[in-house]
Description:
Blueprint: H1 3-13, E1 22-23, H2 26-33, H3 39-52, E2 56-64, E3 71-77, E4 79-83, E5 99-102, H4 104-111, H5 120-125, H6 129-147, H7 158-163, H8 172-179, H9 181-188
Antiparallel strand pairs: 1-5, 2-3, 4-5
Amino acid sequence: NGDSPALKYILSQLPHPMANPIQIPLDRLCRVIGIHDSGANKELVVNSIRRMVPTTIESHGTLCSKSGDRYLSDTFYLFDRAVFKGLVLPDGNQAGTNMLYLSEWYLNNLNNGHVCPLNFGYQMQLRGSITARLYEILSVKYYGVFMHQSEYIRFNYHEPCAILPIGPQRHFSRAIQALKAAPEELGETGYIKDRVWDRGNG
């Protein structure tokens, strides 16, 4: 499902500072995803955005404060509201365009450059959908690594299982088998230098 990174890419290209509501051109969004801007595809994108609006995000030290001087842990939404062309508004008028209302936290982070940058072109070239999603996850973690001048990241196997569309495996060998294709592709494309699997503490 490429609409989420595509939407983030479009938001990153808008002039700053941004303000709500933000117009969302469905035809451009379809082209960025790589699908024809037909009525059926636009409807798929609209339904996907509708599902994204109530999605809850948990931040663990990755959400920057409004002042930019510290990183916070919080639970929030990226989008407060989505209004699509033709919808009857509370004043009785019809919406003339597609509009997205970003949450205050997300809008402030975008305007102040506190959002982890992603190489959208690279992400869309990745063959596996799990690889593309893992790229997003690792980019956020690497962003913290660079901030703390570390040389590697380490995370528990259950972390990606909670985010990626893969089920946790009880056996170590099966866990590697289920997940290894994504980091292998990231290694082949030069995004990561090496990866080490160890049993650790689970």
